[in-house]
Amino acid sequence: MTRYFLAVVWAISALAVADGALERGDYGPLDRAPETALYDWPIEVAPGVFSAIGATQPGTYENAGHNNNLSFVIGREAVAVVNGGATNALARALHAEIRKRTELPVRYVFSENGQSHAVLGNHYWKSQGATLIGHTDAQHEIEVRGFQMLEGMRRYARERAEDTETVSFDVTFTDSYTVDLGGRVLEAKVFGPAHSPGDISVVIPDANVILAGDMAFHVRMPPIFDDTDTAGWLESFEVFADFAKDMRIVPGHGGPTDIATVTAGTKDYLVFLRDAVQEVIDAGGSLQDAYQIDQSAYAHWHTYEELAARNAGRVFERMEFE
Question: From CA 8, how far away is CA 6, in angstroms rounded?
């Protein structure tokens, strides 16, 4: 089966598994801001830097797919958004929050990767005249997986998915890309491979903030896809950690934090899992043995039920050929 078919199967099965976690309240409220499509209201991370922290649960009707962080940065002349959102309804809700704080136009929208909750709302931002910016690999994801992403979102978002369509980036890059909002420069950077194609981080130097995207995790378990290179991710994370060691970090999921916290939530977990998988391989074990690796030390993380065994299996399948 192709990666894209498997991704659709995973999305459906993850929601099925997540029903128990949602019902138990493991993820907290289904919606923290029911007056809006946003899961929660934006917080000011630094002067003029805001982030609406998304749910750490799968995409649901209640959170409208706001299960990642949607951020915006205000300069003297313009605004930049980081992550277009999962639907036009979500993008509109974020825009309404921006307008409460400034009348400046949203001139740029960066997408942290090519996943649905980062790019599908770009359809709305395009209609507002914003320039859409993303990595070349994220653009490839849109071209190959756009239909599946859109259909998956429509299943849970229902009427909130109305008028949302996939659109391409206006600008793509491979290493870095800089914009000037008027007295405030933002730089999108690629530190190397992370958990999905086209992962980028956005740096706001004058605020000492980095919107890390899915380079860095905490609170919830990092998802490992069938094409995630965990060895490469560990190398990238070292570069990222050296760069961001003294910065305020807004990861792709979960609230603002520091380098120690995302190191524990990302690097330490990847090292643990790779070491455990290597023990299985060295002992002549099978994929089924990898599924049984004891990850209970991470059972308190959100999405543990959905991801732990699957992560181990995917790391095993890749490490067999490293």
Answer: 5
Q: Which amino acid is at 92?
A: R
Give the chain's end-to-end CA distance (angstroms, integer).
Answer: 21
Q: What are residue 54's phi and psi, to 5 degrees? A: -80, 170
Which residues lie below 8 Å from residue 53, measured CB to CB, with a gap of 6+?
Answer: 39, 40, 43, 69, 254, 255
The domain locations on the chain are: 3-319
DSSP string computed for 274-297: HHHHHHHHHTT--HHHHHT---GG
The distance of Cα 100 from the centroid of its chain, to the nearest Å, equals 25
Superfamily, domain 3-319: Ribonuclease Z/Hydroxyacylglutathione hydrolase-like (3.60.15.10)
Q: Please state the rounded mean pLDDT for residues 179-203.
A: 97
Strand partners, 302: 220
Q: Quote the tokens at residue 259.
A: 């380098």
**Rounded CA Rg of the chain:** 19
User: What global pTM score does this model have?
Assistant: 0.92
Among 63, 41, 90, 15, smallest CA distance to 303 is for 15
Q: What is the pLDDT of residues 203-259, one digit of tens each?
A: 999 999 999 999 999 999 999 999 899 999 999 999 999 999 999 999 999 999 999
Among 210, 207, 206, smallest CA distance to 242 is for 210
The tokens for 211 are 């919107």
DSSP 112: S
Q: How far apart are CA 222 and CA 301, in angstroms?
A: 9
Q: Which two tokens stand for residue 29?
A: 């409220």
Mean of pLDDT over the chain = 93
Q: Which two tokens stand for residue 62?
A: 């209640």
Run of H or E residues at 268: helix 268-282
Helix (H) or strand (E) holding 317: helix 304-319
Coil vs helix vs strand at 16: helix
